[in-house]
Amino acid sequence: MQIIKPKEFFRNLPSKQCPECGTHINEQVESYLMECDHCLSKRDE
């Protein structure tokens, strides 16, 4: 079993994608949102 360093593990994760429109989401620290800002603003209307 190969041990991977934590930094390397997180660096290799794929970027988060909005399930509504498919755009890539720029993640912020401690952000658990799944939709992008555009889709979230449409939801509030």
From TrEMBL:
**Which InterPro entries does the entry link to?**
YhfH-like
Q: Which domain of life is it from?
A: Bacteria
Name of the molecule in the record: YhfH family protein
The organism encoding this protein is Peribacillus psychrosaccharolyticus (Bacillus psychrosaccharolyticus)
